[in-house]
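Re-run requested by the PI after the first attempt was lost when the workstation crashed. Everything re-entered from the original request form. Ligand of interest: fe (ii) ion.
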Amino acid sequence: MRVMIVDDDPMVGETLGMFFEHLNFKNITILDRGEKALTEIDRGHFDYIFMDLMMPGIGGLETLKRIHETHQLTNVIIMTGYPTMETVIDAMRSGASDFLVKPFRLQDIKIILERISRLKILMENNWRLNQELEQKQEVEKLNIELQKRIRSQALMYDIVDSLSRINRTEELHRFVINKSIDICQAKKACFLIRDNDNSSSYIMLSQKGLDNGGPGKRISTGMEKIEENINRRLFERCFGLTPDTDHDSKLPNSNYISIPFNIRNEPFGLLLLGEKTGNSGFDADDQFILRFMAERTALNIENMALYDNLMQNLMASMMSLVGAIEAKDIYTRQHSSRVTNYAVEIAKIMGCADDDLHRLRTCGPLHDIGKIGIDDSILNKKTRLTDIEYDKIKTHPLIGVNIVSPLMLDNEELAIIRNHHERWDGRGYPDNLKADETPLLARILIVADSFDAMSSDRAYRKGLPIDKCIEELIQNKGTQFDPDVVDASLSIFREYSDQERISIAI
Ligand SMILES: [Fe+2]
């Protein structure tokens, strides 16, 4: 422990020095001026300074103030023979640890040292607790920040992952609504796209929580260019807000938020969200993750549009091939589209999902596309085919699969083309698949195809009457045809007379 005594009275310095020696202080410095004290303390730390109030030069109070500015851990005890309340308060305010009134006794010094020591312990404990509290608060703050980041990363990953599995436009529109509501815990959401035919209008793609409106609803803003006003108007039209309602979509913590969707920096749509659950409004975190979703979704929408365009062109080319095959024989015209219509109707009765109906509508018309690779003389032969000719005919499903390969169809879709001549008993071609080894959509097309073949006129024979065709289907249940598919198809085929054909648009 180091102690400094500063007093211009040598007697006081000497007496105090003896007291401290008695108290086993080893390092005692005795000075007679405030200036000397300031110089000495800059050379090293002192635990205690006992300082006279009245000294020549810099007085005790001024010296105390300067010491306290740079050495706050040093305990300064002010000594005076004439204490006043004002002096005491002034000294304590300036950083004095205690006050010692002259003349003093050894006991007084001991009491002061003990009091300061206790105070020091209390202050150290207090300081440590404060440090711990601050650290805890800092850790909690970091934890909250970390949780936010983890949630944000998880959401971003989830968005990217979900988008990679979406390949239908309607599904994408539903995803935008459901995911944004999920992210923000909002009650209302509406996804709009700009109307190409009218620059002041938008078309609703999907919504949730709104009283009215659905996909295809046109919403007129009656204005152009000024984005904020358009947002305001759209909130009014879609969410039923009044013009006076406070819904500044630009501000965080508002009850409503709008997220723009851009493709190549060109705005093409808007996502409107409203009524977040709980007291807080939409915040910067919501905005960040929603903008991320908007960017990723916009990329998907653009890719889908390009892909759809490419597929439409490819399909158009394929369909012209089918048209070329059917045009060669007036008796097979429209065969593929009729077969597709029958197949879709049967699939509906069998409870197939919308995706499967879509597969049939896409691939049904292409089921015989491989016939383009078969010689016309065989295809149009009016007499019985030789075995060699029949073998050639049997290659058309595989040729078809090769032709449609650029369409990148899935297995169910490919099977509609590859396996539309399989039989339930396994004696069909090209893979001799048995029973349900042939995928369901192909088994449906087999029945539809056979019914149309039987009921249509051919160059070498008249088409069979519908009743006779139905009889044939029933007789060949479990040998040529899937019994369940035949059962499902009967009600459809019975509806048509010899002259009637399904004319439902594909
Ligand atoms: Fe065929």
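Saved to the shared folder this time. Residues 376 and 461 are 19 Å apart (CA to CA).
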